[in-house]
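Encoded backbone
================
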Amino acid sequence: MQRKQFLRRLGALAGSAAIGPLIAACGGGDAAGPASSSASASVPAAPTAPAGTQPTSDPLSPDEIAGLRFMREEEKLAHDVYVAMDALWGHRSFANIALSETTHTQAILALITKYAVDDPAAGKPAGVFEDPQLQALYDTMVAAGAASLVEALKVGALIEETDIRDIEVRMAATDAADILQVYDSLLCGSRNHLRAFNSALLGQGVTYVAQVISQQQWDAIAYSAHVSCGS
């Protein structure tokens, strides 16, 4: 499954396949000062489900329902990891992007509510997930990001390229206009987040190598201009 591949890639990125122990930082050296080394990650406009629309006459397919549930928790995972990394390193990219991820997961929640889909994130505090593999991902990424600021930024880059891949997969599985609108806005935001983490890593003297999407796709996104994601 894709999430199992993600676990393996995260282990490779951090220099070890082991989930338990924290991993020493690799490449880029120590940050001169977490608070002083920061690349601005401007927050895109909040993606929203279309207002005032009525539920579609056709019910969602199992794949569409599974997609909404998965993206709800994946966006929560990104938010929760970035909040944890901000608390550790004080790098403003994490705080800015965490705020954006809040709008992402709320946009998915609006669709979940509209279509009466069971919300997997309901009542769950930060760092807690219904999906056991997403729970393992969260625990692994927080541990890897605790090693150094550079490793934390690499974790952010990995989350965003994975998010881009997963959103594209979910978009291919639906023809519902409102779902596609939200997914498209999330995709725009994730590309901006990828650009922000790439810039932050370059500021640390580190060139990130794509782990999930192709290097060609990474470069095309990372070295292009920030895009406004308003509807």
